[in-house]
Design a protein that fits this description.
The structure is a homodimer. By secondary structure, the first copy, chain A, is of the alpha/beta class. Chain A has 13 helices and 12 strands. Chain A has helices at residues 4-11, 15-22, 30-43, 49-56, 72-85, 100-109, 127-135, 157-171, 191-205, 222-233, 247-259, 277-282, 291-306, and strands at residues 61-67, 91-97, 117-121, 139-143, 151-154, 176-180, 215-217, 241-244, 269-274, 285-288, 315-317, 321-323. The first copy, chain A, binds a DNA duplex through helix 1, helix 2 and helix 4.
DNA sequence: TTGAAAGCGTTACCAC
DNA sequence: GTGGTAACGCTTTCAA
């Protein structure tokens, strides 16, 4: 490994001068600069990021902590993150979280020297933890959760649930089922319960009483969606439409419905949430979340926060949008159109 | 930031002793050990990874360099990588590559201090680059490419192309189209051309001459697959079956076929490659690649290489397997069965 | 404009 | 067993 001292020796200057050239800190004569640059290229010298980080107190790395990063929605967010990071001088460290213990483990070892900034994605973190991390000097941006004093990017999930439900109400549905994450899930995710609030609000606004037997909870998995839909559709008085809190659950629901001999949207309409790629293939009507944008904006804001003059914490609200496709139609219709 | 010296002072010992406790390097009396541990927990001390890395010469980080990491197949590989990494003491740095310049940029800045080990995924790297990286002392494992002297994990793509084609031949097809990545793609990916070799071999073995007009090249994208299939199927003497080098291309091909009023597999059979999640939804017959396993094994081998006694470089061949689903059937059949 | 030298927080070696 | 003290490779201040 060639060090800065060897470069200095080779160029006949001091190590400090090489450093100055390296960092464009000015006050280096053109001639010296040229000699140093030549030595660097001759020796194929590359600064040691560790030493540099230790000396400067930052490591040119940003961390992203994200639960279940291989889920389509997380991947789409990460795509935005990486795009925003492209061209910056920062490396990306990925902390995947598959369980609450996992999360705590990462959060505990996280400090300023591991990453200069942290993007907390789709994961409510206890205020105390957040405070501790920020206390180490790390810049933090929250995507999909919020906390006083932190820059965050959120969507209005209540409005999203309302949007999906209202769409079905507008089509004439009155028996509308709902499925989302369990309210007491171990991570404390609240998006599903917020969407459920929106569902309830839309029904209330329309004067439709909520039938609690039509509200189900389970993980965002295809098989779980199929299972819950199976339960709902095999009841004596099945719903004519379903609001699902993820496209994945919706895909399972559609699968189950078809397996039971029901047509979609003829016998039952289905609305998803997220608008991941699969939604388009399925022709799924869904509430579109700006996933890519949230990741991109989150990382952009984090990089800004890492800059010379960090802006004040801000809250950015990204709009949800209903994408009408082929899985919703008025009730009691064969192959209806939207 | 609390340093090892403060801990030492607090416990009334020297910094060296704290370090010994921290690293279980032995030769510390039980009593001292207890006092140090107490000080650590009182002060909520966490070692600085940068300083540690600088001193020890390694940074407890592994890198993964992967092109287009949001592609379903890459994500599935990464899922295996992360699983293998779980429980280890290594952080994961992700280098996404979207263009050859991108790749070179990453490879150029890569050195021993940035990561202790590197997993090169689905990307043939010039031997010189590989040599340079390894020369910095970094352990390297190749997934989906091979190079003398490097541990690698590969599949026999020629056999894979053969497998897909033979399946169609066995069903009775004789006019079989092929689509894969361009042989002169900027990254130098060879999997598609290997599969094409397999395709040609299978046809030759069956005594079926290759009709060059049935062989097309394009990127692994849905729209490209649709486009290529459109060209093939609108020819005067269209193929009755298609071998696609990715499930994504196959999905596009199916879409195009249906849009042209052809049934799958009635009018045209389609075989994909990869067996990503989508393949199951589509009922796509495909050549299954052990994606998850390749990532998991790759990272496992890398961690072993990082250990005390690194094993010799080895080549691991992972088997491909035909998964028969609903998109292949004998020619000239409506809704045929496999 | 430049060189020398003092850190940055650890680890590891060497005495005691 | 334990403390002192060089590294590790870089940045940055201080003089010159």
């Amino acid at each position: 490994m060639v060090t800065i001292r060897e470069v200095a020796a080779h160029a006949g200057v001091g190590a400090g001068t090489v450093s100055r050239v390296l960092n464009d800190s000015g006050h280096v004569s053109a001639d010296t600069r040229t000699r140093v640059l030549a030595a660097i290229s001759t020796l194929d010298y590359r600064p040691n990021p560790l030493a540099r980080g230790l000396s400067r107190g930052r490591c040119q790395t940003v961390g992203v902590i994200v639960p279940f990063f291989t889920q389509a929605s997380a991947v789409e967010r990460l795509r935005g993150v990486v795009a925003a990071l492209d061209g910056s001088r920062y490396d990306l460290v990925l902390f995947d979280v598959e369980s609450p213990e996992h999360r705590d483990e990462h959060v505990a070892t996280l400090n300023r020297q591991r990453a200069d900034g942290l993007l907390v994605m789709s994961m409510p973190l206890p205020a105390a933890d957040l405070g501790r991390v920020a206390g180490t000097g790390m810049s933090v941006v929250l995507v999909d959760s919020r906390q006083d004093g932190f820059t965050s990017i959120v969507s209005d999930d209540v409005a999203g649930g309302d949007l999906a439900t209202r769409h079905l109400l507008d089509l004439g549905h009155r028996r509308i089922g709902f499925m989302g994450d369990a309210p007491d899930n171990p991570f404390g995710f609240t998006s599903s319960s917020d969407r459920e609030d929106g569902y309830r609000r839309a029904l209330a606004d329309a004067g439709v009483p909520v039938d609690e037997s039509l509200v189900r909870h389970g993980a965002h998995r295809r098989d779980v969606g199929a299972d819950l839909a199976g339960q709902l559709l095999s009841s004596p008085e099945p719903p004519t439409a379903l609001v699902c809190c993820s496209d994945v659950q919706a895909a399972g629901a559609i699968e189950a419905a078809r397996r039971m001999g029901r047509t979609v949207p003829g016998d039952v309409s289905v609305v998803g949430f997220d608008d991941i790629e699969m939604a388009e293939h399925l022709g799924l009507t869904t509430v579109r979340q700006p996933l890519y944008r949230s990741g991109e904006l989150g990382m952009t804001l984090l990089l800004e926060a890492l800059g010379a003059e960090p802006p004040e914490p801000t809250v950015h609200e990204l709009d949800l949008e209903l994408v009408r496709r082929a899985t919703t139609a008025p009730p009691h219709t064969k192959r209806g159109e939207t």
